[in-house]
Target: EF-hand domain-containing protein
Amino acid sequence: MKKLNASLATASALAFALAACGEPEVAETDNAMVEEDLSETAEFDPSTRDYTLTEEAQARRDAFDETAFQEEYGTYRDDIMSEPAEPTGSDADDPAEAQAASAPRDPQTNMRARENMTFAYLDRNDDGQLSVAEYAIWAIPLDPTAPRPDDQNAPRVTAEQANKAADSFFYYDRDGDTYLSQSEFQAARSGADVA
Ligand SMILES: [Ca+2]
Ligand SMILES: [Ca+2]
Model:
């Protein structure tokens, strides 16, 4: 009788152990699903790859003026800070632009989420093309954990971020006019290989 009880106890302990083993598998499945959902909405980050430039593109890249870039980029960031959450002017007639404009923005900087940055939004001076600084509004993702700089006149992005944005900019500037057209920007946005 004692022997039977012992084997029953072993059997139930084994069943319990098996049940416990099953639990982590369920949790792993949940995590995988969450990661998949995030990747579907994530915008391509152009700083995550290296770019091989042609000789001509490299010459244009070498002429990139980081100081002028920081000044222009800072001006746009200041403009965006004071921007209303509704589209204005002719943009108000475009339903896609109106939707992108009224979507939630970064609470600290008033920047749109990257997926809501339309070409019209990035083209700050409305000349139908993107400068490096206009492109960088999209190309340099905001770091929500970055501390606010003590000095209000400090550059908004690091030299490394500015130079990485320039690397991809001159890679996607296929016609070499030192601006990105709508189609050139679309290639950059999708992370296309255009070499
Ligand atoms: Ca422009
Ligand atoms: Ca171009």
